[in-house]
Amino acid sequence: MLLMRNGASQGRGLKVCSVLTAHLKAALLCLIVCGFSPSVLAQERTPPASSPLTPTLNFYGVPGLIDMPGAGALPNGQIAIGVSSFGGQTRTNFTFQFSPRIAVTFRYVGIQDWNSDGFDTYRDRSFDFRYLLVKEGGKAPAILIGLQDIAGTGIYAGEYVVATKEFAQPFRFGGAVKVTAGLGWGRLGSTGSIGSPFGVDRPQFVPGDPGGELSVNQWFRGPVSPFGGVEWQVSDGLSLKAEYATDAYTAETSRGVFSNRSDFNFGMEYQVSPALRVGGYWLYGSEIGVNLQLQVNPKNPPVPYRLSGPRPIIERPKRLSNPAAYDQGWIAAQNAPVVIRDALDAELAQYGIRLHSVTVGAIRAETRVSSDSFDNFAILTGRTARAMTRILPPSVETFDIVLVTNDIPISKVILSRRDLETLEFQPDASALLLSRTFISDADPAPQGRTAQADGYYPNFRWAVGPYIRPSFFDPDRPVRADLGISAVAQYRLAPGWQVFGEVRHRLVGNIADASRPSDSVLPHVRTDALLYAQATDTSLEQFVLSKQWKPGPTTYARVSIGYLEQMFGGLSGELLWKPADSQLAVGIELNYAKQRDFNQGFGFQDYDVATGHLSAYYDFGNGYHAQIDAGQYLAGDVGATVTVERQFGNGWRVGGFFTLTDVSAEDFGEGSFDKGITFTVPVSWFAGGPTRRVVSTTIRPVQRDGGARLNVSGRLYDQIRSGHLVDVANDWGRVWQ
Fold first, then answer.
1. What is the rounded CA–CA span in Å between residue 588 and residue 568?
2. Among 47, 386, 620, 737, whose CB has the most other CB atoms within 10 angstroms?
């Protein structure tokens, strides 16, 4: 829980506008950081009135009525950001439909006129979990169970079971109607109770509680109340809502936040575009409310992905019954691999594909390739295979395409040349080709008569561009950010060896204007971030020498030394076991870290620590990944981090994590334990063209010292997993592009 002083007393309207503006800025900054494009808002027109209703969001950012939840689920993978405000309360909500049945929500709230302990505005963060028990079908309604505010302070804690049924067009005019009815506990059972079927004891919200812990002992306890409502789509974009609400807003009304005079709420919403929806409401007989909803789906990019057309596959002439015998003499020539290498290199360079080496035999050939452009290994494989059909002699029947990333061979894709020649124009060409393709482990180095690519090492690259560093949830100002110029440079000395550095200069920003020093009882490994921001405008973010290689067909290794991140430098080593066709991976990382000076130059402070983690990774298929890291963290605490993530075929990644260590909730401080949400958005998603650049960010409710892990660039699993069997197969449909 966070409290803030609001300064001189002002009018309610001015306060609400100020808070709403801050939350809108937070939502917009999230969009910018995560790489959303404004063109998302300009898609095809909204569905006609007679079509089923698109899931709409309530004031808590979940599918529902106005303030009450519904049983609807967003489309699979959908991301929804909502900002709602009424009665001096503003909520910024982020909801992710993690799977067809599971949805999670993160919420940040500001409540004006809280008037507790001399403070005016209450700041709160909370998480929700929803599970769709029954999908709607035929005469059966959708049925959903929900947990609200399961890991916060508990001010919004509530549980519910709700059913929603849609009727396509029950009236002579207008469109679909949704009817919702449910039972609510906690906040949702605070008025109109019909009893306490699962026990009357329920812990109450206590101001000052640091929050962050699961309150399992209160779930579905205490009074339960029935709620319900209806939503009617009047025209193409307009819909009306009415509901009977069972939240008495006891804490708010007792503090004079607003007056609750009625249990009935009414609203009108308009679908501006398929992505954007706005609404106005009359709530609790006393307040006007507004709600803005923005929905996007990573599977539906705003800009179509465009590539220059690939060159056609060249079929071999049917000239001899034994083409191998015809070509063996030519292939045996001493300079054959070099001739083929030069021809393939010129062919692949047209696509932005780098050829590392060619190994040629009488009936089999191997190429090792990488690309700084293509973020999709299926496209890289398909275009390399096309080039091989154009260059290699007719006797070569089997193509081994080794996918390389950052000089590491990560997998070998084995294709039949005959399949490429015969399947390209089949209706189900991609599926047929995948069923006949093998993806296996790549040897650390080529085997046989090989021609290596020349002239790549040493290699120097640099870039200068803008950067943005956001900071969220400061109670004095919820959204802060620094903007500046970043200069990065990379020098590749030899295969696997590189020096990387980044220097930043802040031009404008207000992160350093914060005034809340660390109160942590643990070593200040993260909570002194303000001191780093205040010390300098020009900082050396990273300066690292690293070596990564492949000791064996299924093992990978990395060593990094230098200024590893903003706050720590030192030595980091990692070893990973990951077969290309396995869903399981296991790794170990050991680090020696020393805390850097606040000015982020070349100096160090006195604090140093040995950290390390044993990690297990599992790919469940369909883009679902899980990871467990167990070991010692920067503050010397010991525990484990659990991460669950969903990755889309186009490179989008959305996940969540939590860390539990031997640090008590009291010593950890606000939030009780570390947790957060991660985003990775490929630039190609909104640029509409091939690029491997991504925009990544992590949103934490609060950053403390417990459970803090060293931020090391180039961890192995994230580098290699996209080139292994499950991930390549997930987006194999692009192999013919």
1. 20
2. 386
pTM for the complete prediction?
A: 0.87
pLDDT over threshold 90, residue 498: yes
Q: Can you tell me the mean pLDDT for 92-121?
A: 85
Helices 336-349 and 377-391 meet at what angle, rounded to 10? 130
User: Band of the pLDDT at 301, cuts 50, 70, 90?
Assistant: confident
Q: Are residues 243 and 66 in contact, defined by beta-carbon separation less than 8 angstroms? A: yes
- Residue identified by tokens 């179509």 is 304
pLDDT value at position 477?
80
Alpha carbons 597 and 568: distance in angstroms, whole number: 9
Residues 366 and 281 reside in one and the same domain:
no
Return d(Cα 492, Cα 498) in angstroms, integer: 4
Please report the pLDDT score of residue 177 as a whole number.
93
Give 3-state DSSP helix, strand, coil % of the chain, rounded to 5: 15, 40, 40
Q: pLDDT > 70: what percent of the chain? A: 88
- The single-letter DSSP state of residue 286 is T
- Per-residue pLDDT at 504 exceeds 80: yes
pLDDT at residue 303 in the model: 83
CA–CA distance, 639 with 629 (Å, rounded to integer): 8
Kindly state the average pLDDT of the residues 334-339.
79
Q: What is the CATH number of the domain that holds 646?
A: 2.40.160
Tokens of 314: 């060249």
How far is the C-alpha of 412 from the C-alpha of 725, rounded, in Å?
A: 10
DSSP type of residue 52: P
Query: Residue 28 and residue 33: Cα distance in Å, rounded?
Result: 9
Closest CA to 105 of 68, 149, 144: 149
The whole-chain average pLDDT of the chain stands at 86
In a shared domain, residues 22 and 77: yes
Are 245 and 327 found together in one domain? no
Average pLDDT over every residue of 474-480: 80
Return the closest-CA partner of residue 227 out of 150, 161, 155, 144.
Answer: 161
- The neighbouring-strand residues paired with 84 are 91, 291
| Single residue among 405, 431, 455 that ends a domain in this structure | 455
Query: For residue 74, what are its two tokens?
Result: 């967003």
Instruction: Answer whether 662's CB lies under 8 Å from 632's CB.
Output: no
Among all chains, which residue has been given the structure tokens 């091989």? 388
Contacts of 356 (CB under 8 A, 6+ apart): 368, 369, 370, 402, 404, 452, 453
601: domain range? Answer: 459-494+496-726
Nearest by Cα to 599 from 528, 688, 539:
539
SS3 label, residue 531: helix
- Predicted pLDDT of residue 332: 61
Maximal C-alpha separation, the chain: 94
Closest CA to 258 of 477, 64, 16, 62: 16
Condensed to tens digits (0 to 9), the pLDDT of residues 361-376 reads: 889 999 999 998 887 8
The pLDDT value given to residue 19 = 43
